[in-house]
Each structure stands twice: as C-alpha cells, then as structure tokens.
C-alpha cells in the first residue's frame, strides 16, 4: 500500500494510468502597450492557460508557449506623451546599466566606449555580473513561474493557510530575515544556499570581509548567525511577509537528491561522518542483506538505491521530519502559503541572483559569487536513477511530486 491523495491504495495502482493530457484555453489579450518611441509600434500581450482540461500531472502539461505578443498601433496609448528618439532611449538604457561597467565609463555618463581586447581588466568577470537577458525577459520568466505555482497550488487541497503556519512557527524556520534590507530568504539546502548565506553575512555586517567566498562555509551555517522568521510574533511575521521582498531558489528534485547523497554519504568530511553515523548505519541495517560488520558499524558505503529505499519506506518518519537536505522544497518554503517575489532556479542561478539584487537595489553593493566549479550533478541523475526499479522511481516521484509540478520539472524514466 502507498499514499495517493490521502488514501491508501495498492502499490500496483499508478498515477500515470489515470493521466489526463492538458489542453489550452482561448487566448486572452491585454490592451496595447508601448514605450512610445519615434516610429515605433506597441505590443499586445496575450496569455492562455493549460486548463481545458487541466493536466493530471506535470508529465501531461500543455506543449507550447502560454504567452505571445503581437504589434499594435500605439497612437492612442501615446497621446499626450513625448516620444523618445532611439538615441534618447539608448542613452537612458546606457545610464541605467552604466553602474555595471565602471571600467568602461568611470564617470557614469552612460557613453559607450570603443571595444578593444584591453578594454576590460583581468578581474572584470569576478567583479560584476550582467545577464545577457534583459530585465524584461527575466521578469517575464518570473511571471510565468509564479503563475504556474498559483495554478498548481489551486489544484492542491493540502495547502496550509497562514494562520495555521503562524501557530506552528517551526514551519518558518528556513526563512532568514534581513531587517536592514527588508529581505526574506527561504534557503533550500543543495541549491546554492551556502553562497546566499555568505552574501547575506556580508550585507548584514556579520563578516570581516566584503568577499563572500572568503567566508568559511561552516561559518555561514552556524545556528545563531541569522534570525529566522519563526523567532517573531504572529503580528511581526505578517508584517514582514507583506512588506519585505521574499525570494527562494529551487532545483530539479532528483538532481538535488543526488547532490545531497553524494555530499553527505560519498565525501570525506566531518559532515559526511555525521550522516553516515546518523543515517548510514540505519540504512545499511534495514535495506542490505548480509551486510558486513564494518558496514553496519560505519555506514560508510550506502548505495543510492538503499538511500532511496529509506526515503520511500512507509516506516520512515513523516516527510515533514526528513532531514533538510532531502526534505521536499514545498515543505521547506511553503510556496502555496507564501507568495515569493522571486522564484530563482539553480539552472539560471546567476541571472536570477542578479534579479534579486536588482529588485532589492543591492547590485551596487554586492555581487552574487560565481563558482569556479559548476555542478556536474545534472549529468549524473540518469546514471544514479537507472539502478532504481520503475516502482521505486514512481514512489520517489510521488514523494517529490509537488516540487516537480510547482516548479515545472520533468522526471527521468517516465517518457
């Protein structure tokens, strides 16, 4: 037996067999809008929803775009407005983004310098990051992500309301509060949270350095470094949720799980020693036949399949009590209860981190640290999951189903 929507059903029953392919609604168009440039046209943005019918799961969502744009006559929209010339518009944009290229324009006049191989200092790439995408494109991505979260949350009947969350404040223990900059950051382990904590330490004056990467990783995870939202009164919590900028960074659920397994059971560190002793020995004892005495006493050689068997076992404690490194993101950050201003993704980490800092007016103060060693976990997910049976994969998907659906991820093995 296993749990399906709160009901116990035989393991032979599959959610995939009850699939419903989603269909698009009619397009709904917004009024013509325009930047009112000389000889320009406006744009009409149209949207449609995947609700005709609604898909049964993330694997059966509609294909194609949910947003499109067409040109329109902007004469009425721009009546009474002074139209900008392309040069005036370009000057405004140069002035806006001039802050990111002080080595081109030290006076901040927004004038473009001629390019040469010597135009940029050697350390320019580590100083300031500027995404290739425009801020309009980044904001559009955010709109789509938040729209999907809202749609999936509406379909779910298990969303805690804010009153119940405030009564059980431990549910808010992963939201870090930065009072000075009015930020709420819900950290998800294995999704760049170490670097975000380092950056917040710099912003909040909790480190004797302005370089986040100079902060020892363990120092950023100490219990009393930050104040969490669960430390506030109910009234204070509501105020901060209403008035502070809230952001979260998420990752493909199976990629995050593989990363946690490799980091906590496959590496040699004081942290992995703890996880092997705390979880590894228990996992070997429960899921390995004829385990050696050394494996039983050390828990040092847990396989990924054994780790998955532990996670999907009904005897394992309720998932709300999972260790934070493999607890579902929906349980850590409550995206159906808390409306985040920015939902960043690990796959677009630098762009989304830039957007967070831009919206908080902090890009001139700090930059999100770039990693010299990009994660290779994505390419390893299939390698790890191929050792699982289809039933194990389905059970694992079910544990993280809301993460898949909320954040538009697809599960390997179901295609």
From TrEMBL:
Q: What is its EC number?
A: 2.8.2.-
Q: Where in the cell is it found?
A: Golgi apparatus membrane
| Membrane topology of the entry | Single-pass type II membrane protein
GO biological process, any: carbohydrate biosynthetic process
* GO cellular component terms, A-Z: Golgi membrane
MF annotations from Gene Ontology = sulfotransferase activity
Arranged from A to Z, the UniProt key words for this protein are: Carbohydrate metabolism, Glycoprotein, Golgi apparatus, Membrane, Signal-anchor, Transferase, Transmembrane, Transmembrane helix
* Primary site of residence: Golgi
Q: Which residues cross the membrane?
A: none
Q: What family does the database annotate?
A: Belongs to the sulfotransferase 2 family.
- What is the official name of this protein in its record? Carbohydrate sulfotransferase
Q: What is the lineage of its organism?
A: Eukaryota, Metazoa, Ecdysozoa, Arthropoda, Crustacea
């Amino acid at each position: 037996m296993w749990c399906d929507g709160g009901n116990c059903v035989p393991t032979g029953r599959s959610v995939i067999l009850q699939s419903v392919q989603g269909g698009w609604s009619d397009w709904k168009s917004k009024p013509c809008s325009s930047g009112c440039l000389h000889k320009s046209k406006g744009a009409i943005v149209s949207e449609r929803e995947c609700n005709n019918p609604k898909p049964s799961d993330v694997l059966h969502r509609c294909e194609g775009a949910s947003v499109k744009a067409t040109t329109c006559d902007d004469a009425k929209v721009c009546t009474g407005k002074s139209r900008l010339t392309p040069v005036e518009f370009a000057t405004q944009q140069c002035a806006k983004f001039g802050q990111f290229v002080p080595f081109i324009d030290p006076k901040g006049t927004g004038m473009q310098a001629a390019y040469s191989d010597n135009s940029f200092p050697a350390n320019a790439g580590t100083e300031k990051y500027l995404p290739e995408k425009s801020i309009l494109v980044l904001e559009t991505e955010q709109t789509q992500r938040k729209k999907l979260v809202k749609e999936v949350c509406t379909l779910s009947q298990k969303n805690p309301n804010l009153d119940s969350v405030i009564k059980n404040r431990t549910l808010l223990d992963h939201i870090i509060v930065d009072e000075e900059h009015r930020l709420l950051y819900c950290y998800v382990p294995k999704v760049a949270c170490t670097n975000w904590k380092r950056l917040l330490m710099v912003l909040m004056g909790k480190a004797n350095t302005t370089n986040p990467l100079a902060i020892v990783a363990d120092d950023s995870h100490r219990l009393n470094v930050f104040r969490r939202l669960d430390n506030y009164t109910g009234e204070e919590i509501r105020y901060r949720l209403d008035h502070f900028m809230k952001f979260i960074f998420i990752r493909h659920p199976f990629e995050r799980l593989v990363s946690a397994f490799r980091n906590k059971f496959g590496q040699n560190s004081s942290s992995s020693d703890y996880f092997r002793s705390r979880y590894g020995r228990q996992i070997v004892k429960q899921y390995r036949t004829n385990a050696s005495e050394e494996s039983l006493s050390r828990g040092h050689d847990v396989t990924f399949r054994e780790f998955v068997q532990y996670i999907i076992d009904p005897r394992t404690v309720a998932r709300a009590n999972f260790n934070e490194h493999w607890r579902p993101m929906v349980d850590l950050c409550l995206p159906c209860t808390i409306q985040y201003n920015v939902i960043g993704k690990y796959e677009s980490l630098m762009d989304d981190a830039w957007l967070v800092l831009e919206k908080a007016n902090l890009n001139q103060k700090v930059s999100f640290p770039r990693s010299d060693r990009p994660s290779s976990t994505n390419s390893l997910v299939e390698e790890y999951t191929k050792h699982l049976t289809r039933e194990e994969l389905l059970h694992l998907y079910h544990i993280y189903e809301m993460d898949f659906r909320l954040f538009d991820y697809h599960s390997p093995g179901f295609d």
